[in-house]
Every structure is written in C-alpha cells, then in structure tokens.
Amino acid sequence: MMNTQPIGFIDSGVGGLTVFKEALKQLPHENMVFLGDQARLPYGPRPAEQVVAFTWQMVNFMMAQNIKMLVIACNTATAAALDVVKAQLPIPVVGVILPGSRAALKVSQNNHIGVIATEGTVKAGAYAKTIHDKNATVSVTSLAAPKFVPVVESNEYQSPIAKRIVTETLAPLKHTDIDTLVMGCTHYPLLRPIIENVMGPKVTLIDPGIETVSEVSTLLDYFDIANNDADFTPTQRFFTTGSPSMFDTIGKQWLGLNQLHAQHVEIDQLPTNYEAAPLDTIVVATQNAGKAREFAAVFESEGIKVKTLRDFPELPDVAETGSTFEENARIKADTYARALELPVLADDSGLMVDALGGKPGVFSARYAGAGHNDAANNAKLMAELGEVPADDRTATFHTTLVFAKPNQPDQDLVVEGDLPGMIVGVPRGNDGFGYDPYFYVPEQGKTLAEMTTDEKNAISHRGQAIKALAKVWRAWYQED
Ligand SMILES: O=P(O)(O)OP(=O)(O)OP(=O)(O)OC[C@H]1O[C@@H](n2cnc3c(O)ncnc32)[C@H](O)[C@@H]1O
Ligand SMILES: [Mg+2]
User: Catalytic residues (predicted)?
Assistant: First the structure.
C-alpha cells in the first residue's frame, strides 16, 4: 500500500517535536506535517475552553494539509480537546495521555506513579483518571511544573537556569516513593537529562511520545493507510504561528537535522471547516448569579453548559459606559470574547418606569449609587415613586442580548425582549433577583419573585430574548 498523505502533529510549541522525533525513527517512510502554536504558548495556564478553541484552529489548518491521521502531540490539548476532536474528525486522532498512562503502568513495580505536567493537565486530572480507569489500586502523585515550558521554548533547556528550575520544581517528589515518573508534557523530554539527574536512578522516566508513536504505527496498519513503500523518501514540513528562526534553532538541534525551515502561519485567519460546532459550552458575560441561573435553565435543557465570568476570575471587570442597553451589552460581549478568544453572550437589562421617564434604565444595577445592591436599589425606587398612584406605576423590563465571536465585533448577533408590568408598593415573593419582588405581572397575578425560575423564564424579558436567540444563533455561529 502506498499512501503518501501526511500525518499531522500539533502542539502549543516545539514540545511536540519530541513525539515527532520518535515518529521519524519509527515511521521512516511517512510524510509528516508539524504545527506549533508558539504565538499563544504556553497552553498550560489557559482555561480549558480556550485550549479547545485553539486546538480546533490547529485542527482546521491540518485538515487543509490533507492529513490521514492527527496526533495531538500536546498533553494540555489532549486533556481538553481529544474527545471533541475525535468525535468530529473523519480521520483517526491520537492523543498522548492514554499511551503515556499505559507505559507508566507497565513499568511501575511499587504501584506509585508520579506525573509532572502543565497546570491545565494536572487540573483536569487527566493522567490520574486514565491510570485509575485501568488500575484503581495504583496511587498517582501529580505535580504542575509551569516553568518548564518557557525554559524549553527559550532554548535554555541545557543551561544552569534549567538545572535550578528543575531541581526546585521536583523537590516535593523527592520525598515520595514513586518509582516511575511520567513526563506529562511533550516539552519535558528535552529536559530529560536534568530530570533524570535530579530524580536519581530509582525513578524510571516515561516519555509518552514513544508509546504514542507506537500507537500511531498500529493504527496506520489497522486502517491500512500506512505508506509501505520502502524506496519512498518522505518530506517533513514545519509550521509555527510564532517566529520561524527560534523554531528552526531548537528543531534542528533536537531532531538532528542540518536543514529545517519552518513557515510562519497566521492561524486565526484560516478557514474553519471543522468548527467546534456543535458548541457545547457558552460563556455568559455576567457576574449576576440571578441572570446566570436563568440562562442555565434555558441552555442546559438543550445540553449546553453555561459558564459565567465567575469561572474566569482572572478577567478584569469592564465598565458599562454605554448609554443604551445594546451599547453596554456589546461592550461586555466584545471585550470578553476578545480576552477569552471564545464566543461570549452578554446581557444588558434593566427596568424602565414610565412615571420616572424611563428610569432607572441602563442604570438599573447602579441606581442607588456607590455600594449599590438590590435592597438599596429597591429602596430608591420606592422613594422616587413616592405618591404615584398604583394605576400609574406602569413599567417595562427590557433585555438586550449580544452574542460575540472572538475578533469579529462587526458580526455581533443582537436580540431583545420586553415584559410590561406594574410596580407594587409592597414587595412580594422570595425568588428571582433585583427588582423582581416589586414587579407585578397582571396576567399571572404574581410578581416575578413569586414565580419559579421556569415560570419567570416563560414570560420574562430575558426569557423572550433567549427564545429569539434560540432561533438564530446556531446559524449565526456557523457562518464565517
Ligand atoms: O453586568 P452583569 O454582570 O451582567 O450584571 P448586572 O447586575 O450589573 O446587570 P446589568 O448591568 O444588565 O444591570 C441590570 C440590572 O437590572 C435589574 N434587572 C435586570 N433583569 C432583571 C430581572 O430579570 N429581574 C429583576 N431585576 C432585573 C437588576 O437590578 C440588574 O442588576
Ligand atoms: Mg452590569
């Protein structure tokens, strides 16, 4: 069989070359393409959702190279994205975590395995889970080594600095009785001599890359897509989203090649044929727990997880400086979509009371001024309405939703919803949030705070806006 389609390797940077090197050895007749996302490295500290989005961009690039198999030569990306990528690609996809776990289980004598990896991989518990799936009695000690990737990428991996960082980082493992240590990040094998030195001869190091390539080899045979022409001289092509010169230096050194010329690619300008769609998580740009519950009730019934700004504590607050609901929702959605590089849905909403000339409007959250909260806002509302008779206390709750894609602010999707009602003088009910206890809906004979979340969502301004959104967002999400 002669199949000259290349095998694709993707990584956050040069680390994946440790897997690639093994592939050169085990698969000497295969064409291969490598892509390192050096412009956005390291992946380790990033939220998993973002790693998934970046991985999809690399996957799309690789699919455009007509690859026959994809190797996710990055542990962080494997932990975050292997399952979703596998589920949607028409070709075999191999990650590094399962092979690495298998190798460690084979080697360990005392059933105590250590794992060093990035923060993302450790946080996902990826190795511990995979190892325990195979053997629940093994104990696994995981340690994040966030400083290793930068040391490798800056080509300092043989320097005294590297020695110091490795010694310091691994100190906690020296007090354990692990007999096996998984290098759970493809960058780490470049530090192997130092790691070996620090851990001593009683600890066997596992390089998941070796086992990963064995799996690739098995799958090539299984699917009958290997290139078995022994006379064939294959080519290797290298791409980076960062600077090719740094890539070339490390690449030549590590792979032992005289010639290596990586090409630069602008990853977020590439077409996306294999989108992350169907989207399974939405980030709602809100700090408001009441809003979050209402969004969750609607989207989770469709099988879509809702995350909020509370899941991303590292993000700064944005000031709602707009003078309309739409402006404010756009500010929130666009800013966070840019920061997270994920699709983000923002809600700006408020109460407009006719007798108050439409106030508090866009100032609903901050109506009572500095240090505002629901109670203070409601007290101010009562004070402002003063003697206004019950019949004249008509009001409208309004919501504008803006859905934003990263880096495409001109494509924002905007929908709205309104709910008319009356402001009562005495609060009723304990559910909902904000002005709900004072907002009476005549048709239901209840205030919003007397309704369950489902009852409120069925009629509310936000519920209506979400219904309008539900009809159009999937199509919007899939267009480029
Ligand atoms: O900006 P985020 O973080 O989303 O949260 P927020 O509470 O500041 O939200 P807005 O800027 O949109 O302000 C909306 C305010 O209007 C009020 N509000 C909006 N929707 C409401 C609802 O369904 N029930 C009661 N009050 C509501 C409530 O006081 C909110 O704080
Ligand atoms: Mg706000």
Answer: 74 (proton donor/acceptor), 185 (proton donor/acceptor), 348 (proton acceptor)
